[in-house]
Amino acid sequence: MARWGLVVGSLALVAPPAARGQACVEPHYRWSEKIDTALQTRPAKPVDIATILTAWAPVSLTSRDTCAPREGREDSVFALVGWVRRVRLQESDGDWHVELTAAPATPVDSCIIVEIPAERYGAIYRGARAALASLVDTTRLGPRGDLRPPVRVRFTGAAFFDGFHQRAAPGGTLHADQHGRCNSSLRALWELHPVYGVTAPG
Fold it and tell me: Which one of 7, 20, 32, 141 is at 20 to 30 Å from 192 when CA atoms are compared?
């Protein structure tokens, strides 16, 4: 009997993770974090695009971290003013994808992305979308969502590092890839996601 108990105990130790408990299942990368409204009441800290692109260090998250919780800077809310250069309204996950630059003539690839989840995830997102539509004529976007002329807008939302787009080159060097047009560096993978508020800059 003691020998049988030892065998059972040994099997438990080597059982695969799936046997010990269900793995996290998300419909999209870190989806629970992207649509979470829990941070909306936190005070927003001002930040600018230049600071994000030069001073916010990338983190180690990659496409394998589908269920990673928020940590560090991602637990904070920021207010960011930028020039809207592209708005994509038909993303596969239902988000409104917005690309911002620091100035109206800044090269479009020196951008930061902010995302507004679908209205079904919270009334706050319905309000944010309505506010953006009141500032940006979303009926006059180009075929790829380009906005001409750009419009200056303030977005308030939670910081989010989109590690899904952190890829390794053949030599092993990490780089940003297929993150809209915002692939200038790994720091460009920082977003405001979700966006809780949209206003005209003061």
Answer: 141
- Do residues 82 and 153 touch, judged by C-beta distance below 8 A? yes
Question: pTM value?
Answer: 0.87
Contact 84, 147 (CB under 8 A): yes
Do residues 91 and 171 touch, judged by C-beta distance below 8 A?
no
Question: What one-character DSSP code corresponds to residue 56?
Answer: S
Contact 194, 115 (CB under 8 A): yes
The tally of CA atoms less than 13 A away on the side-chain side of residue 148 is 5
Reading the chain (202 residues) residue by residue, the pLDDT tens digits are 444 444 444 434 443 433 333 478 899 999 999 999 999 999 999 999 999 999 999 999 999 999 999 999 999 999 999 999 999 999 989 999 999 999 999 999 999 999 999 999 999 999 999 999 999 999 999 999 999 999 999 999 999 999 999 998 888 889 999 999 999 999 999 999 999 999 999 8
Q: What is the DSSP string of 5-43?
A: HHHHHHHHHH--HHHHSPPP--SSTTHHHHT--TTTTSP
DSSP letter assigned to residue 185: S
Burial 137-176 (b: 16+ CB within 10 A, else e): eeeebeeebbbeebbebbbbbbbbbbbbbbbeeeeeeeeb
Q: What fold, for 41-199?
A: OB fold (Dihydrolipoamide Acetyltransferase, E2P) (2.40.50)
Domain boundaries of the chain, sorted by first residue: 41-199
